[in-house]
Protein 1
Amino acid sequence: MDENKMVAGKVKKPGKRGRKPAKIDLKAKLERSRQSARECRARKKLRYQYLEELVSSKERAICALREELEMYKQWCSAMDQGKIPSEIKALLTGDEQKLPPGGSSTKTTKNKNNISSSNG
C-alpha cells in the first residue's frame, strides 16, 4: 500500500490525472464520422420533404380560401344588383336540401358561376 494512496475508501494509483486517451483506430474513427454525416444528410432530406409537403398543403388551402372569397364577392356583387343567389335563399329559408353539393360548407367548387340570375 505504499505505492497506492487511499482516498475516500478508493485506492488511487499514482500517475496522470483524468482520462487516458484511448488509442482509437483512425480508420474506425473516420468511418464513424462518415456514417454520422450520412445519417445527418438523411435527417436533413426527411426534414426538407416534410417542410415541402407542409408548404404544398398550405398553398392548396390558400387556393381553396381564395375560391371561397371569390364566390362571396360574386354573391355580394349579385346582391348589389338586386339579385339574391340561390345559395343565400336556401340559407335564409333553412332549406339546405336544395343547395348544390358543397354550397353551404367552407369548401368551394371550381365552378365560379354559382349566382342565380333571377330577381328575388
Protein 2
Amino acid sequence: MMYEENYYNQDSDLVKINDSSQSNPIIIYAHQLNQYYHTLLGNPFERLKYYDSSIEQYHFYRTPGIINYIITYYLYHGCLLTEIHYPVEILYDELVFFGFNIQIIYDIISNCITIDYYIPSGKLNIILLQI
C-alpha cells in the first residue's frame, strides 16, 4: 500500500530569507517560523509582503546582518541569542520592525545588563557590566 496521502515534502516547507548583506540566503522551515505568529517572520501573510518571486526568497532591506540575529529566535524555540554588535537605537528599530514583544525588546535594550539569551518565561541569563 502506498502512503502518498501521508507523504510530506519538506522541501516545499523551506523558506529562504535574505538581506542586502548576504550572498546566500538563510534557509529555515516555515513551520519553525509559523510557531511565532505574533512576529513578522512568523506570520505567513505579513511575510509574503517581502517575497521576491524572481529570486524565490524573502528579501528584507534592513540593517546588514541583522537577519542572522533575528533568525535565532526561531531556531532556538523562542530564545533570542543576543551577541549584540549593533547600536541600541538600531537594534530597537529592528526588533520593532520584526514584530517582537515590547517586553522582549525592553529586556534586551536595557542599558545596565548584557543578556546572553532571552527566555520567554521572563527568566534571564544575565551578566552585569563592569562599569
Protein 3
Amino acid sequence: MEEFREKYKKEHPNNKSVAAVGKAGGDKWKSLSEAEKAPFVARAEKRKTEYNKNMQAYNKRLAEGPGADEEESDKSKSEVNDEDDEEDESGEEEDDDE
C-alpha cells in the first residue's frame, strides 16, 4: 500500500479521502496475480518477523521490571554529564557570543 498510496496521490492530488485510496488499493490488489503479489507478501512476512522479534524483546524488558532499564539509563546519563563537565572546566568550549 505504501507505494500505491504515493502513486495514487500523484495521480489524484485533490483527493483527500482515505476511504477512496483504500478502495482503489483493494481493487488493485484483487486484480494482481499471485506472481505479482509475491514480492509484497515476502516483504510483509519479513516485516512481521521483525515485528515479532521486537515485541519479544519488549515483553522481556517488561517482565524484567522497570529497575533494569533505569540502572542503565542513570549510568548513561552520568557518563554524558561527566564529559560535559570536563569540557566546561577545561575551558575548551566557549560561546561565540562572548
